[in-house]
Amino acid sequence: MEQTASVNAEPVQRPDTNGTCTQWRNRSGFWLLGLCNNFAYVVMLSAAHDILQKQESQNGTLPTSATSAVEFQGGNSSNSSRYDCNPVSTAAVLLADILPTLAIKLSAPFVIHKLPYGFRVLFCAIMAATSFLLVSFSSAVWMSILGVIFASIGAGLGELSFLSLTVYFSSDILGYWGSGTGGAGVAGAFLYSILTQAGLSPQVTLLLMLVVPVAMLLSYFVLLVLPPSLPQWRVRETEYTAVGSEDRRALMDESEEEEQEKSTPAEDRTAGPLAFTEKLHVIKGLLRFVFPLGLVYFAEYFINQGLMELLYFPKFSLSHAEQYRWYQTLYQVGVLVSRSSLCCVKIRNLWALSVLQVVNAVLLLFAVRFQFLPSVWLVFIIVLYEGLLGGAAYVNTFYFISKETGDRHREFAMAAASVGDSLGIALAGITAFPVHRYFCSL
What we know:
Layout lengths: L1 H45 L1 H12 L4 H10 L17 H21 L5 H20 L4 H25 L7 H25 L4 H7 L2 H13 L22 H4 L4 H10 L12 H32 L12 H20 L10 H21 L5 H29 L2 H11 L1 H22 L2
Helix pairs in contact: 1-6, 1-7, 1-9, 4-6, 4-17, 5-6, 5-8, 5-9, 6-16, 7-13, 7-15, 12-14, 12-15, 12-16, 12-17, 13-15, 14-15
């Protein structure tokens, strides 16, 4: 009997070891998926100034040496405005980067269940790689914009897919996904700034980024430990179903499982496809999350793509293009810090974050118009704070959606709510066009 007891005692320890290993693989996997999914999107926005300046230089009549001198000084010979403006706002790149994402997020939650997760990830990686190649070898503005659109399609489908996928895992996975998306901002903007400032051309820099789609595939297909019931390559027999099942419970600890049981009504644990009217009912309940998230992103992207290019300090040691890149980098540092803060602090009052972000936008709008800010360092601080607000709004929105939505609706809700940030960004891009044109005409 003693020998039998010792033999049976050994497997008791194995689940703990395997469970810990699985947990860390999934955490690392989702962090890397967040990083890789948003990387192309961020790089395109960081490269927006260079993309437009490159096409302007190619289409202009300046000789090569003169064009290089203009680029080095951060100047722009195409206008006589007191602002150093590109003839086309970087909002043009923003709109190309967000409108396809918005279209996908508005429509895909209703039909995306018909496409297995494995195919979705392959498609996203192909889109990201294609975007880097198109923009690298572009010879006209339309070709660059097309590359940006490919990045947008991949990022949009990836975001709603991976947010939906988090509901199959333990509740802390969402924090790692959010942190990874923040890491994409820092890694994308910082690497682009460093490599181009070190002397590499934007073309070579973008080609080096092709390692990112490969990393996405490895993170999903090799690193993640996926639930057995998750259909990788086959269509589901049903639509969105209750995910508070044995697969997810196997990845939860006991306290999480008890909390889940208490917080989820019995009717929300029913299996079966969601009816269209039921989806509309879920969307109606999500509006209290979507509106404040959209407002936060409207304000911050109005700053990023409508005002940042106009906040130029000619007496500072960095050129105009370099100042723009570092604005983007510091903004992304703020996003990374706040999107990684879910384990430490949770903010339920999303409207407070929205109001603070709007105050930022109004302050910088007046700063552009009246030019009262004394130093670029002050803008650096404001932009960092802007990123902190935006990142906090994103990660807390999806955290409370996952907590306050029943099992039956959670996967659909996470996908559908992702439209909030994209809608705000799209409206910001549209608004930035006339504002940019106004200031450039002064």
